[in-house]
Amino acid sequence: MVPFIYMSSLTFTLLDFFVPMLGHTPVKTNSNVFLGVLCSATTAILAFNGLGKTPMRLRIQDTARTWYNSDMTENRSDAGYCLWPQDPNVLEYLSEISKVHPQVGNYKISDVSSCPDLYCSQPLYRYPSGFSQIPWIWRSDKIHQTLKDEVEMRIRKRQVVQPGMFKIELIFQGPPLNSLALRTAQNWEMRKIVLATANETFGAIDRFDKQLCYINLCKGYFAKDLHMTVILEETLPNIFVNESNFKSDLMDVFLVGHIMRDVNNSKFKDFVQKFPSWTDVHSWTSIVKQYTVTTHS
């Protein structure tokens, strides 16, 4: 739309300047001929440059995902490319992009608003407001383990502070930029969240209600770990929750570490470079890890 407005402005300037001059020149040139040639040239320029095709903005994340059991052992893992659309009509152009980049045609839509997994296990870098359908492309090879090891959650402490109320202390390890989501289990609600390190407070809570919290974590380049304390309260008190032999889910933790530096992944670079010139692509690597926190280890 912007190129069209700019070209229209230039066309109006030409008409406003040259047409009056034609009446003062000794050459008997019909002004309609000049207008016809100018309009034809303008139409040709717009047509050859893709009239109506504005740059499609995409954020492409080379993603490794890992799901953990309640005892913190690995359950399963996979890898793929997540295509985050920044414009509302990006999905309409994927079929056209696949003509020059066939691998894009193998995408599967993940609907973060209806998937049973938290945010459909997609590597969020901001709260998903406005876009719920995210294209995902599977890949057979996986991201190197050293990158996956950069992102981790540890449970420092969990204790019953009073009947029906739990306190959980978590430690997160990751790159400078991270996304974090917490979702309580059934019959539990979040009462308080404290984000802090020994030296600083960090993070911005984009959404917080009693059962779901989404946080952007930015620890800077010098903080080693991210510390969090969560207070949970039981909505329907369970008489067995204080028993040492009873184990119950408290909440799901969805952690995404965004690695913005060059990780020298030649396959990912080749995947990104195949997108047509009329797309505006930004790319990085994301590590997704999903945990379940329970009342007992």
How would you portray this structure in words?
The chain is of the alpha+beta class and 297 residues long. It folds into 3 domains: 47 residues; 114 residues, no CATH class; 110 residues, Sandwich (Immunoglobulin-like), CATH 2.60.40. Helices cover 21% and strands 40% of the residues. The protein has a 9-stranded mixed sheet with strand order 3-4-2-1-13-12-7-10-9. The mean pLDDT is 80.
Q: How would you state the average pLDDT, rounded? A: 80
Helicity, as a percent range = 10-25%
**Strand count:** 13
**CA distance, first residue to last residue:** 57 Å
Characterize the biggest β-sheet: 9 strands, mixed
**Which H/E pattern describes the elements?**
HHEEHEEHEEEEEEEEHE
Secondary-structure content class: alpha+beta
Please indicate the count of domains.
3
Name the beta content range: 35-45%
Number of contiguous helices? 5
Q: Could you give the order of strands across the largest sheet?
A: 3-4-2-1-13-12-7-10-9
Low-confidence stretches: none
What's this model, at a glance?
The protein has 297 residues and is of the alpha+beta class.
Comma- or semicolon-separated keywords:
Immunoglobulin-like, 3 domains, about 300 residues, alpha+beta, 13 strands
Architecture blueprint of SSEs:
Blueprint: H1 2-22, H2 31-48, E1 56-68, E2 74-85, H3 90-100, E3 108-111, E4 133-138, H4 145-148, E5 152-162, E6 165-173, E7 177-184, E8 188-196, E9 204-208, E10 212-218, E11 226-234, E12 249-259, H5 266-273, E13 279-294
Parallel strand pairs: 1-13
Antiparallel strand pairs: 1-2, 2-4, 3-4, 5-6, 6-11, 7-10, 7-12, 8-11, 9-10, 12-13
